[in-house]
Structure formats: structure tokens, C-alpha cells
Amino acid sequence: MVSDPENIRLVVLDMAGTTVADGGLVERAFAAAARRLGAEPDAMLDYVRATMGESKISVFRHLFGEETKAQEANKAFEEAYAELVDGGLVAPIPGAREAIEQLRSQGRTVVLTTGFARTTQDAILAALGWQDLVPLTLCPADAGGRGRPYPDMVLGAFLRTAAADDVRQIAVVGDTSYDMLSGVRAGAGMVAGVLTGAHDENALRTSGATHVLGSVAELPGVLA
């Protein structure tokens, strides 16, 4: 646990479920993708829920096995999710933008990360008007392609921003077990779970959360 939260210089925030309200869009897009491939989505949804936060292509590789089919499923998922975003069905978590702006006003660098592909991440940012909200956004492909629960995106943010001198000056914040694992594996000084997304407090703490917050809106106060 962080002995002095004021030492946090870099804040790595997840998007869907943490700063962006999901509202079941991931499951809806997955169901559409599964049907497009002739699969029955209900039989797969438990795995999809359990692996929320993981790189989506990794999820499809597990479910479909064959790489060609996994890539096809991933493409169908991204297209379905983009249609939902275009339909105005994406919104920020209440207080998320204000929290990000407050963190930056405190002198901290904020990076937004996702398990989605770059095209989907950019569509979400555009829909919210967040293109210039933070200096860096990362998707799995920007950090070697493995995504969560690997520490790659967190360490990528650490290296690219040069905002912190030590990984213990990083806070990783997300709504899933995979977010927590990525923060722990990166050596982050704070690994905070939020209760606005996929996983409950027990799952977050079991995966290494040092803090559990009601929402990201509480984060600036915790760090102040």
C-alpha cells in the first residue's frame, strides 16, 4: 500500500467501467459478434464477464481457438461496438472527466488505457469529446499486443511519459481483476479498484487492490 499517496506522479486509468460507463455494451457487442460467426453467445458470456479488462483478441482466441476465426470474431466485435458508440450509447462515468482534470491540476500525469483495439478506443474518445483530455492513450497494440493482465500498458505509460522516477509512483485504477493484476505486476504503488464496472470488491481485493473506491470521482481526494 502507498505510504504517501501524494507521491503518485502517474495515474493509469482504465476506460470502460472505470471512466466510461459500459452499460452492458461489451456484452451486447460480443453477442452480436458470436452470432455473426454462428456461435451461441449465452454459452460464452460467463467467460466474457470473468475476463473483462483483458485484451479482446485474447478472449476470442480462448473461445474460438483458431486464429483466423478469432480475428474474424474480434473484427465483428469491434464493428458492433463501434455501431453502439455511433448510436450515442456511450457516456462518461459521473465525475470522471472532472476527476481527470483535477488529477492533472494536482500536477499528475494521466494516461487512459483499454483492452479494445485502437479504432474503438478512438471512437469512444471522440464520442465523449476526450481526444485532448490526457497526453497519452494506450491500447494493447501500443504496448506489445498482450494487453491485461500483463503489465505492459502500465509500463508503457511509465516509459513514454517519463512522469515518474519509480514504478511505486504509479497508481493503476480499474474495475476488473485484470486491471488489478496488471498494476500489481507492474509494481505500482497504488492499485485501486472501482465499483462502477464488472467486478465486485472481493474480486478486486483478491487480485491485489490496495484501495477500493465507489468510483473514479473519489480518486483526487484520496491522493490529495
From TrEMBL:
Entry keyword annotation includes Hydrolase: yes
Protein's GO biological process: DNA repair
Transmembrane segments: none
Keywords, alphabetical: Hydrolase
Pfam families: Hydrolase
Any one GO molecular-function label of the UniProt entry: phosphoglycolate phosphatase activity
GO terms under cellular component: cytosol
Protein name: Phosphonatase-like hydrolase
The species this protein was found in: Streptomyces liliifuscus
Biological classification of the source: Bacteria, Bacillati, Actinomycetota, Actinomycetes, Kitasatosporales
